[in-house]
Design goal:
Helix content: 40-55%
Shape: flat
Distance between the termini: 34 Å
CATH superfamily of the largest domain: Ribonuclease H-like superfamily/Ribonuclease H
CATH topology of the largest domain: Nucleotidyltransferase, domain 5
Radius of gyration: 36 Å
Order of helices and strands: HHHHHHHEEEEHEHHEHHHHE
Strand order of the largest sheet: 4-3-2-5-6
Structural class: alpha/beta
Strand content: 5-15%
Number of strands: 7
InterPro entries: Homeodomain-like_sf (IPR009057), Integrase_cat-core (IPR001584), RNaseH-like_sf (IPR012337), RNaseH_sf (IPR036397), Transpos_IS3 (IPR048020), Transposase_IS3/IS150/IS904 (IPR050900)
Number of domains: 3
Protein name: Integrase catalytic domain-containing protein
CATH architecture of the largest domain: 2-Layer Sandwich
Largest sheet: 5 strands, mixed
Number of helices: 14
GO molecular function: nucleic acid binding
Length: 358
Amino acid sequence: MMNSTLQRQILLPLIEQAIADGARAQQACAQIGMSVRTLQRWVHPSGHEGDRRVSKLRAHSVPPNQLSQAEREAAMSVLNSEEFKDLPPSQIVPRLADQGKYVCSESTMYRLLHCAQQMGHRRLERVPRKVSKPRALVATQPDQVYCWDITYLPTQVRGMHFYLYLFVDIFSRKIVGWQVFDCESAQLAADLLRDICERQCIPEGQLTVHSDNGSPMKGETMLATMWRLGITPSRSRPSVSNDNPYSESLFRTLKFRPQLPLGPFTDILHARRWVTDLVHWYNTEHRHSAIRFVTPTQRHAGLDGPMLAKREDVYAAARQANPNRWSATARNWHPVNEVHLNPHTPKPTENKNLRKPA
């Protein structure tokens, strides 16, 4: 920036000489890296006064209404007093006014607290607790990790719903148990889980069941049933749907099927019939993309291995017959051996002292 009077005294005659010799003002200014507007300001009658912005800045650097040091200390003592230490300035100012006192404005109080680094939690309410991410789970076989949740099904009465209880095996994506009820209940969920364990012949200590933090999931009846069956519970963080992605994805798949009635369900029997047909389609006909496009029933029964091996042989033969049509590797038909729920992804370590090679 060319703001000093000395720079103007040196450069202005040179620019004027260049212009007198036939150069354009814009080109002459560009040679020394300044704009034509700066030249116009220099040649203005008031240009000999130098950069007036500096003088204005110095004249107004200290606001005339700024609090003195004694006033700042008095205001901070009020803010940190026993009466006001847990209140924000928006609550302190009217209380002081009721007492016939004026210390400073509300914005000044906020500014003082910012400067003192005291703009933390000052309200009389519970401090938000930090909830850690649920532990990472991995399934290497069926009946090892289940996810379950409850979703609404519309009825003909506004404000009333049927409730679809759904348990899914994350390894095979098979719906291992479901039921439609007219209420949310930990007892109903516990009865459904007990029935699933009996039908699947699950031994104690093998199964982990993940859910969100709804009241049926945290009910004493449900927890007691899981304890008796030797099931390990796992829960999502509050209001974090990503911690239970398998149930959320399954609900979307079911509710976006064309077979979903356009209107509400007439009664609970109507809803149960619809879910029965839908679960049959999902388990036995739907080829799931996350398990190499086999059905959940085939995956749960261990039939996906031979099927995928056959597909791989078909692709190998096709590539051998026409190798010019294959520019990259063939499609991946290898079975998915591990399925993860809420895996812990390590954060990349950054070392600012290390420099990249040239």
